[in-house]
Amino acid sequence: MIIRSAQPEVIEYPFSELRTMITPTEKFYVRDHFPRPELNLDTWRLRIEGAVNRTVELTYKDILAMPQRSIVATLECAGNSRSFLVPPSPGVQWGLGGIGTAEWSGASLSTVLKEAGIKDNACDVILEGADQGKVDPSCGPHPQEAIHFARSLPLQKALDDDVLLAYCMNGEPLTVAHGFPVRAIVPGWYAVASVKWLTRMIVSERPFHGYFQSVDYGYWRQDQDGVSRVPITTLRVKSEIARPQAHEVLRINQDYEIFGACWVGETDIQQVEVSTDGSETWQSATFLGEAVRNAWRLWKHNWRTPPAPQKVVLYARALDGQGNSQPMYHNHNNEDYMINFCLPIEVELR
Ligand SMILES: Nc1nc2c(c(=O)[nH]1)N[C@H]1C(S)=C(S)[C@@H](COP(=O)(O)O)O[C@H]1N2
Ligand SMILES: [Mo]
Questions:
Q1: C-beta of residue 208 within 8 angstroms of C-beta of residue 122
Q2: Ligand 1 centroid distance, CA of 183 (Å)
Q3: I want to staple 153 with a disulfide (CB 3.0 to 4.6 A). Which of 33, 158, 299, 314 is the partner?
Q4: Which residues line ligand 1 (CB under 6 A)?
Q5: Burial 30-39 (b: 16+ CB within 10 A, else e)
Q6: CA 273 → CA 136, 280, 282, 299, 342, distances in Å?
Q7: How far apart are CA 311 and CA 120, in angstroms?
Q8: Interval between CA 34 and ligand 1 midpoint (Å)
Q9: How far apart are CA 322 and CA 307, in angstroms?
Q10: How many other β-carbons are positioned within 10 Å of the β-carbon of residue 229?
Q11: pLDDT tens by residue, 178-199
């Protein structure tokens, strides 16, 4: 694992080790913003308040007793691949490994919301973690005092049965690093929405503009209504080459399997193409395994390496079910988030 920060803990998965769809828990990347809370099951409660018919306080046992749902979902940090931006951007210098896929089990958030009874004028559900601290002053306007890590979901997404209050990861209770005892899992959205160490949920009558979805983890969206600051939500279409790695030396005139993964949120991947000549021509890659919505899909491409020594630039490019394909260059309107441009992988043939 690659340590990007010791405190708060930020740990990257070495993406070139990718072999299986499920990332082993001990290899799953970690992204904390504040000192990590250690929560005690005897005193831990999950409180649901705000625009609800009755305020509810759930124990761990209460949540375990609810109908269990399991889904396989990919979490990607919105800043994954940041180290490849030109010009460089401050913030966590992720390579390719701010991403992982796990099987998550828990209760549907919708079960809890229905139990509390949502009022007609409800609009957002705010998910709050137990962790708190002062935010990085360099990101923009910020409060002076310590704040909790919090994100909101619009009611419609919050009521999607696949949005979980998860207590298991890959069949084992959540580890502290990944949000013990209970975290949100919001499939198809950048992982910032999947709040760890949940302790409070507030049903709000107004859209929430908390720090982690307006100042940070937000962007300026331009459409027919003009320009507005909106939270980062759905995963953008992306494919990456795990092997070979950039600057690897390969043999000439050999069969080589180019291997990688592709993903997107809330739709499917239609196709992955690979270029072995610096984006002049593209060939279809072969998917491995079945498509699982909101989880990455592994792919391979059998390549006969050129007969003469040279340097070659490889690319992978995915196309999603809404007709979006990966751009060749980063869209700087996304600031230093949602980085899905086709990454050149230069290899040397000897
Ligand atoms: N409470 C809390 N939840 C959080 C965070 C955090 O710092 N505190 N980080 C978010 C971000 S930006 C990411 S990428 C994911 C990382 O989840 P992981 O550490 O389980 O991989 O958690 C999200 N949920
Ligand atoms: Mo993140």
A1: no
A2: 9
A3: 158
A4: 28-33, 75, 77, 129, 131, 149, 178, 191-192, 194-197
A5: bbbbbebbeb
A6: 39, 12, 6, 10, 11
A7: 62
A8: 10
A9: 39
A10: 12
A11: 999 999 999 999 999 999 999 9
